[in-house]
Each structure stands twice: as C-alpha cells, then as structure tokens.
Amino acid sequence: MGIFLSFLGxxxxxxxxxxxxxxxxxxxxxIFLFMPGRARVARSNIFHCFPEMTNEEREKIARESAYRxxxxxxxxxxxxxxxxxxxxxxxxxxxSVKDELENFTEGEKSILLMVPHFCMxxxxxxxxxxxxxxxxxxxxxxxxxDYPALERWVKKSRERFGIELLSxxxxxxxxxKYLQSRKGCVAVLYDQNAGGAGLRSLFFERLxxxxxxxxxxxxxxxxxxxxxxxxxxxxxxxxxxxxxFDSSDAVDITIRGNIWLxxxxxxxEGARFDWLWLHRRWKINNEEKSCFRLQxxxxxxxxxxxxxxxxxxxxxxxxxxxxxDSMSSVLSLLPFLRTLRESRPDxxxxxxxxxxxxFLARAFQIVDEVVSSPSECAARGERVGFFRYMGEFYPDYFxxxxxxxxxxxxxxxxxxxxxxxxxxESSRRxxxxxxxxxxxxxxGETEKRIRERFFRNFGMVGExxxxxxxxxxxxxxxxxxxxxxxxLVGDGRGMALDxxxxxxxxxxxxxxxxxxxxxxxxxxxxxxxxxxxxxxxAEILRSGxxxxxxxxxxxxxxxxxxxxxxFASLANxxxxxxxxxxxxxxxxxxEVVRVEATSEGILNEILKQER
Length: 611
Hints:
Elements: H1 2-14, H2 17-34, H3 36-49, H4 55-78, H5 84-90, E1 91-93, H6 95-106, E2 111-115, H7 127-130, E3 138-142, H8 148-158, E4 164-167, H9 172-180, E5 185-189, E6 199-203, E7 206-210, H10 213-221, E8 224-234, E9 237-245, H11 250-267, H12 269-274, H13 301-308, E10 317-322, H14 327-343, E11 347-354, H15 355-364, E12 369-373, H16 380-390, E13 397-400, H17 405-414, E14 418-423, E15 433-436, H18 439-444, H19 447-457, E16 484-490, H20 497-510, E17 515-520, H21 523-530, E18 537-542, H22 547-554, E19 559-562, H23 565-573, E20 577-580, E21 592-594, H24 599-610
Parallel strand pairs: 1-9, 2-5, 2-8, 3-4, 3-5, 10-11, 10-13, 11-12, 13-14, 14-15, 16-17, 16-19, 17-18, 19-20, 20-21
Antiparallel strand pairs: 6-7, 8-9
C-alpha cells in the first residue's frame, strides 16, 4: 500500500496543474454520476442550509465542493514529492498569522487551533517549512487508519516537517503535554460529526453533534484559542489565516466555533466551495428506537439557544408523512402528529394527503405544512412523479402510512434519509425501519391503537392528546344552545330512507326550532329525506366535494346522527356528540353512542337529552 501511494504521489507531483484540475473535475463528476447516495447527501446539506438559493446555485456549490475534495486528496498524495521551494510558492502565510506568531514568541501561553475542514487544510502539517518565523512545538489530532501500511505512510508523509500527529484515540495525554508546556500548540479538526460522544448543539439551526474537545482543552489548560484555516487562492494554492477567540469557557468555545463557521459559509462564496459538504455533518439522534424523541444527554442546547437569541429550537428536521386518502385516517393521525412535534421539538412536520381533505387538515393547524397529493385513483406515474418532485425538498424522515406496491414506489421516489412504515404478513414493506405486526393484530386492532404502537416503536414520548380539534379562526368552538341536527347519511346504505324520514319528522315535532344539516353523497337522496315535509329547515351538502364547508357547518350542530363513518369521524374530531349506526370506533375523546339502525333507536337517544 505504501509503495503504491508513493508511486501515485510521485506521478501526480510531476503532472501540470491544468491536467490535475481536469482530473479533479472528472473524479468529482464520477462521484455525482456513480455515487448518487453520496451526491444526495451534499445536495441535501446545501438545500437545508441555503433554501433561498436557486437549484443552479446549490448545484454549483455541491460540484465545486466535490472537485476541491478531490483536489485536497491529490495534494495529500503529491505533497511529499514537492520541494520546499514549491511548497513555499504554493502556500502563503497571512499577515495576521505572522503577527500572531510574533505575539506567541513574546508571550507565555500555549495555543489551541480549531481547524475547519476546508480544501487545503492539510497545509497545516507543512507550516514549519512555509513560515519564515519560528514555529512552536505542534501536535495535530487525526483519525488513525485501520490498515497498518496506510497508517505508516500517513504518519511518515505528514510528520516529515516536525509536526506530530496525535491519535484521536490515544492522543489526549500528548495534547495536554503540548499545551501545559506554556509554549506549545495543538490543532483540532472541530467541525465534523462527533457522533454519540459529541455535544448536542446547533449548526445552521439544525441539531448536530460537535466535538467538545477544543473547549475542554482550553478550559483545562487556560491556553489561548483561535480558528486556523486555509483559504484557497488557486489550484494547490492557499493562504493560511487565523482568528483568535477571547474565551476560556468550554461551552462558549464550542458554540462560537459553530457560529464562526456558519457565518463564514453564509458570507464567503469561496468558503462555501472549500467546505466538505459531502459528509453527514447532521447525522445525529437517528437511532431506530429513539429517533421520534429528542435526546440531549450530552447537550449544550439551552446555552446555544441563549447565545443565538432563540426561545425554542428551530424546526429544521424535515418530517414528511404520507397518509391514506380517507378523511377518517387523516383525522385519526393528527393527534399523533401533534405529540410527535412535542416529542421532537426540532421537527417540521409536513402532512401529505388527498386534496379532498388537505384544506381541512390545514385548517386544524396541527402540523407545520399540508401538501395535496394526487388521489389513489390517479395514474401510478402521476403519484410517483409527485413524490419524486417532493424528494427535491430533501426530507430527513418519511413516515409512509400507506400500503401496497404503490406506497413502496412512492418511498423509492422520495429518497428520504430515513423511511418508516408498518409491515404485516400480507403486506411487506421496503423501508428498513418498520413496525412488524401480524395480520390478526392488524385487522383485530383499531386504527388508533396501531398508530400508537407505530409512533411508540420509534421512540415518541408524551401523552397523546385526543381532545377535540379546533379549526383556525374558530375561537368560540361549538355553538352553544344549538338545535341543529346533522344527518350524516353518506350513500344511504346504513338505514332505509323511510327511517331517516321518520327521524326528521319526529325531531321536528318534538323540538321547537329544530334545524337539519344533511350530508349525503347525492343531492337527490338528501332531498328525498325532507321531501313533502312542511316547516322543516334543512341544509343539504354533498359529502364528496364540500368537506371544509361541512366541517364549518358541523360546528353549528347539536348532535350528529351518522351512518357514514368518515363524517362521523369528522364530527367526533370536532367534539360533537355522535349517535352512530355502526360498531367501528372513533379516535377522539367525546360522546359516542351506538344505536340500532331504526328511527326508534335514534329518537330514544336524541330525546333523552331533550327531556
């Protein structure tokens, strides 16, 4: 391995820059063409950070970042074979760094350098040869390789100018030795994903794991601290710069490091191109059994929010939820999404549902966004195309609560970072994260119970609130003292037409000022219920096309008599008493009475309250 890398580096060092630039672009384009998963990581990261940019602007950043990542890799290989004169020609030291070196020579404190992952960052190991001023004893943290031959080559090539590599696994003792000497220097690559060992903080207002090592070292040794970075000025050319922090608090240093880098990436186009966007910087809190709750065991989120002037976590985790087309399914899902937003306070929940109920779901203001999707009756290509379009918004989580092959096709088209679904014995799912239940459980339990199992399985915490929903702008809630009765007859199959007529006649005779709202699939059937009656106040709505209007009208009703399950679910969700002609349960808290499908059974229940 070492011989091969040395030979490759020697060849690269002899090639002209124009040929090397072309090679970098070719390899970068290869990554985007043949490694779509890695390319999507870069595009997703940039989209989350710069949603205001155009697709062309974001694509330019992603491509240029990939090219410069390859450029850095080739420089690492070739630099051992570049002469000291060539290195001094390519790497310049800024005046600010020269001034700091002068101050460092005269002072007594050691210094810790926080290094961001910019292109040409490797020039830090060449600092002794490119500087015309004395360099303090310096150690640089690095991640050791598992292959001994590669590890030997890396250490030999990077330590040739006198800088020592400190293993992340075993280098803490040596780092303390450098810093406690009062005249040493330690460099730490601080802006990568620190995983479970890192501190939970924010970067571009998104939850991330940040290394707390720089802050701990500074606080423990009282050394100076600053950002040390290389600004690319041309191919294999850079200028080394430094910005010091006036702080010795570990938490403050950790937060300021992230904020400095975020500001740099926002304001400096060159820095955006230089930074490594292809790594999973924000991959955190995604353990399968706990991803639906916020974990902050090793966090500095309160301090971060205070430092940034925020009262609560920004909702930057994109959670897309695909619901079945039925109104009852969408309504029964809303209490769980309300709890999910509380369990993951950084989640922005987007509900994808049929256009017929999307306006209604939007009116309840439970989720952050509601998007209308093509109905289940639409062509397969139309639905898949829609989800492919939605994938361009780069969701982090996709909760796919639909079933069938089309649901799997939609999942593949969306390409979310993580997908979640329910799998039964007769309905296999492609998602890696799924709740597996038997067919007997699936068909034997209520939808409400299955939903709760699903959300709890992936870690959601908190009591689910099944209290009635309130529509936007409806501050008063249900109309008090109403004498309006809703007849939710649907397609009329629940009870004979004559029985419905008897209900209307009897209520009208027994209740002064009784009014009726009839919701039916067809106007003809609804008119048949009140036809030939005198002095009956009735309003008729068609169930298929006036869902939002029906919901508004239902809030004016005293009770809902239902043979139609979907609109019974709506009445139940609004907190209206439901007299139902079926056994199937409803999701929300509220009074639900099961009666026989006869006018006598209905009237007895209705008139109880009148008495």
